[in-house]
Amino acid sequence: MASCLVAGERLVRALRPGGELEPQQLPPKLRAELEASLGKKHKGSDLPSGPARLVPFHLIRDLHQYLRESGSALYLHELLQGSEIYLPEVVKPPRNPELVARLEKIKIQLANEEYKRITRNVTCQDSRHGAALSELGKQVRSVKTLVITIFNFIVTVAAAFICTYLGSQYIFTEMPSRILAALIVASVVGLAELYVMVRVMEGELGEL
């Protein structure tokens, strides 16, 4: 925080013998403090002009109050022409090595977690090749299931026809009656099988 003023040449000349402040008859204490501040040069690396004369703000306030109370024709802003506020260089405290190491560890951990989150759904295999194989496998399984279902349907209907035809000989003596009974039973069994097949296919499509 700024607490001093870099005195310009105007203020320095005003306090010298024969300067503008000499007729003002400044209080001895105020004059002595101002002269001591102006006579003391401070080495400041942030000042391009090298050593600087630093005047505390409280002395500037005291000078301003005296000029105002005494009704002087001099104004403070005139005396401060060429002066600048002195901003000391802020010295940063050294960082704790343990804290720095902990922060670096946390940064690395967060970076690894972010990388894992981004690459969570990425596999080492070629996605297109894997997708093609998966699609081919699904098609093969679908064809295999369809073939087995059709084969079971044919076997079931044929078995129902044959069993009814052979069993109806104890009821009907005529061949057309036995064939008609076998066809009716085979049709009923076939319709039942078709109903079951449709329900199963609906369930599979629903899962997809």
From TrEMBL:
The gene is TMEM199. One of its GO terms (cellular component) is endoplasmic reticulum membrane. The chain crosses the membrane at residues 146-167, 179-198. It comes from the Eukaryota. This is Transmembrane protein 199 isoform X1. Keywords: Endoplasmic reticulum, Membrane, Transmembrane, Transmembrane helix. One of its GO terms (biological process) is vacuolar proton-transporting V-type ATPase complex assembly. InterPro entries: ATPase_Vma12. Its main location: endoplasmic reticulum. It holds the Pfam family Vma12. It is found in: Endoplasmic reticulum membrane. It is a multi-pass membrane protein.
